[in-house]
Amino acid sequence: MEQEVQWCMLNFTGDHSVSYIKKLTFNAFFYHMWAERNRRVFRSESRTPSQVLQGIRSDVRLRASGFEKSLSDTDYNRQFMARWGLDACFSVPQLINCYWKKPFSGFVMINTDGSLNGDVAGFGAIIRDEEGNVLAAATGSSPPKTIILHELQGLETGLKLAHMHKFRNVQIGTDSMAVLSYVQRSINPPWVAITVLRNIRRMIQSFESFHICHIYRETNEAADHLASLYPTSGFLEVIPSSFAEDLKKIIFDDKNGKAYPRCVY
């Protein structure tokens, strides 16, 4: 049972409708199992497995009917909703141009990310100048906790790297809305991340100028790659010349001067 619970915790992630229904099912399962246990112990009554299953399905459908469900129009999502007998609004994914965000004049851009994969966790950061040249990069690993903690460790690594290279005006690019919210103090962090966040805020105060913004995950490929290296060291600086050519490459967009294309989806 413990392995099954751990699997659910790792796979029922995200904030889309399918994930939410999976979480509802997870909670309803334990509620009905405990209710059935009490029914048998205290009332000497029992229900058949199919009756318990029907109770779980009814509770999930009832709760899920109370929120608007918008999903990408995929075969998996349509079949998932059909099996639950739920209505949903399906949208066709749109092609978008993804850009690596150019920093403000006089700033460096620090892309950061964190990674959690089973029993390993890592984080990474890469610093570029206004021309897209790689100035510094670092990677690291830590005992696996939560993805939020490791994404914050990526930010902590980027700020530490900027201090080491004496950059005074820094701009952070993160694909995590949670990290953005924690730094901007719009929501409170989980207790496991409080120490790291305090260290981040302390380092932010020492810069002359600091800015953080949300970016597309597709444009954060280099930081994501660094976060997935999982070195044995808690902090390991990477020599820019050893960085893979496809991760260093930036194609210029001279038309608007504000961003460089990184990929198209």
TrEMBL record:
Residues 111-228 form the RNase H type-1 domain. InterPro entries: RNase_H-like, RNase_H-like_dom_plant, RNaseH-like_sf, RNaseH_domain, RNaseH_sf. It holds the Pfam family RVT_3. This is Ribonuclease H domain. One of its GO terms (molecular function) is nucleic acid binding. The lineage of its organism: Eukaryota, Viridiplantae, Streptophyta, Embryophyta, Tracheophyta. It comes from the Eukaryota.
